Amino acid sequence: MKTLVEARDLGRVLPATVPVTLVENIDLTIGDNEFVAITGPSGSGKSSLLYLLGLLDQPSHGSLHIAGHDTARLKEPERAALRLESIGFVFQFHFLLPEFSVRANVELPMRKLARLSASQRRARAEELLDSLGLADHLDKLPEQLSGGQRQRVAIARSLANDPPLLFADEPTGSLDTQSSEQVFNILDELVHQRGKTVVAVTHDLDMADRADRRVHLVDGRLADHTESH
Ligand SMILES: Nc1ncnc2c1ncn2[C@@H]1O[C@H](COP(=O)(O)OP(=O)(O)OP(=O)(O)O)[C@@H](O)[C@H]1O
């Protein structure tokens, strides 16, 4: 197993007159090809942990290696490049750009890396959208799609630069049961058929049960019964 995420004694405290601890003492190793669910009560620090692991926030203490890089040693441009190349994000609300077509939304992250030509970006966006059942919607605006379809576009966008790691914050949180099931199946397929690692914060216990592994947070700390099956 290749280690993609390695956190040691990771923590985040917000400085204030009375400092606020978001998460602390996080020791966590995540390998390639794993589907990890992060669960815990509301306010237990699930999103905070995801943002730390996804390099959207900076830890106050501890160490974090992502895809073999010691993130404390990276300067901001290197950190941004690592995020762009190695990490995809899917949020509860899709955050697609409303004025851009579905295809253009998926092409955007590729433009930031400047690895592919315009025609290659277009072809890749179409291929990704096709693989997620959206081939008929390439030129539509996000508002013309259903919630489940938009979330699938957001997943396609997260895969644009072919990152090994996907972080998802309540990816099914605002979807009906059928769309949730579809999104779960896509994430599951990404792990078990396309070799990705997915780390998903979820309140959906069914999804947590069906993940390969469950990491449970209580009051900002990993609980003892964090399990693997
Ligand atoms: N910017 C902030 N300022 C003060 N407190 C914060 C801030 N961000 C988060 N918190 C607090 O930190 C704790 C952890 O928040 P976080 O959003 O990570 O929890 P969560 O488990 O994802 O919650 P939920 O399931 O409700 O989304 C909560 O008690 C929250 O109120």
In short:
It is built from seven helices and eleven strands. By secondary structure, the chain is of the alpha/beta class. The protein has a single domain, classed as P-loop containing nucleotide triphosphate hydrolases (Rossmann fold), CATH 3.40.50.300.
CATH class: Alpha Beta
- Helix amount: 25-40%
Query: Separation of termini?
Result: 16 Å
**What is the global morphology?**
globular
Counted by DSSP, the helix tally is 7
Roughly what fraction of the amino acids lie in strands?
A: 25-35%
User: At the third CATH level, what is the topology name?
Assistant: Rossmann fold
Domain module tally: 1
Assigned CATH superfamily: P-loop containing nucleotide triphosphate hydrolases
Major β-sheet annotation: 7 strands, mixed
**Low-confidence spans:** none
Bound molecules: adenosine-5'-triphosphate
Structural class: alpha/beta
Q: Based on DSSP secondary structure assignment, what is the total number of beta strands?
A: 11
Family: Belongs to the ABC transporter superfamily. Macrolide exporter (TC 3.A.1.122) family.
Organism: Halomonas huangheensis
Keywords: ATP-binding, Nucleotide-binding, Transport
Domain ABC transporter: 5-229
